[in-house]
Input
Amino acid sequence: MVEFEPAPPESVVVTACFGADCVPAEVDQLRGEWAVPQEAPYLGPGVIANGSAQTLRLVVVDGTRTLVDDEFEIPVTVERTGIFGQCTGPFRYEPVHVSLGG
Output
C-alpha cells in the first residue's frame, strides 16, 4: 500500500515494482487506495510472492513531469511474543508514505 501526501492529482500515472533492478508496471487506484499486488508484473528479478520483498520502486509521473522516481524501504511491524517478548511473532507490512511536496 502506498500513501501519498498530499494526494496526487487525478492525471498522474503511478508505476511500481518490488525489489532491486525491477521494471515498474502501472498501478491502478482502487477505492482511493494505491495497492501494489505481490504478483507479476510487479515482482523484480529473484523476488518471489512470499512477502519477503523489502523495497518498493515507485515512479509517479504527471504529464511530462516526474514527481517521484525512487526506491522506498517497506516498513514492517513485528509483534513480539513470549513472556519477555523475546520471540518474533506475526508481522505485517505498513503503508509506504511518499511525499509529493516540492
In short: The chain has a mean pLDDT of 88. The beta strands are 2-5, 12-18, 25-26, 29-30, 33-34, 55-62, 65-73, 76-81, 87-93, 96-99. The CA atoms of residues 12 and 49 lie 27 Å apart. The first strand starts at residue 2 and ends at 5.
